[in-house]
Design brief:
155 residues; 5 helices; 2 strands; flat
Length: 155
């Protein structure tokens, strides 16, 4: 299945809608300090970035619709499928971290990704599992940053 995508048009639409939504929810997500210290508001940098994104999205839309300057990308499912499946695997990994903890998610997902990529050497799997466990303890005891642990063990 092949789909032709007009890059300027769709990028302008998607990023324009995203920046408008983010501008609308910015006040509810980033609070202004209760006292006036004379410093700029914490909303100023995200606001400037989002307005800049909106302006660039409008420029892409004008470029596509008015000037008819467009690049077309041909999306071929057979070619893109491995990358999309890898991204979905990383999304599953993120959900597993939240619900099962960092160690279990790493011990399950990373070996599965290695199998998917065609890795067959057992030492690589052992190193990957050890690295996941080692990173957990490195963050917990050296950096004093708690990564999600097993929910039923109390962290």
């Amino acid at each position: 299945m092949k789909i032709k995508i007009k890059t300027n048009l769709w990028s302008g639409i998607v990023m324009g809608v995203f920046s408008i939504i983010m501008l609308l929810i910015l006040p509810s997500q980033v609070r202004v300090p209760a006292f006036d210290s004379g410093a700029p508001s914490p909303r100023i940098i995200p606001g400037i970035c989002l307005v800049g994104m909106l302006i660039c999205s409008a420029a892409l839309l004008i470029q596509s619709l008015v000037f008819k300057k467009e690049k077309e990308f041909e999306f071929d499912w057979a070619v893109e499928k491995p990358c999309i499946l890898m991204i979905l695997g990383l999304c599953v990994y993120t959900a597993m971290i939240i619900y099962l903890g960092f160690v279990i998610a790493s011990v399950v997902i990373f070996p599965l990704l290695l199998v998917y990529c065609g890795e067959r050497k057992p030492p690589i799997y052992i190193f990957t599992i050890a690295a996941g466990i080692g990173i957990f303890f490195l963050f917990k005891y050296v950096f004093h940053v708690s990564l999600p642990a097993l929910p039923f063990l109390g962290g």
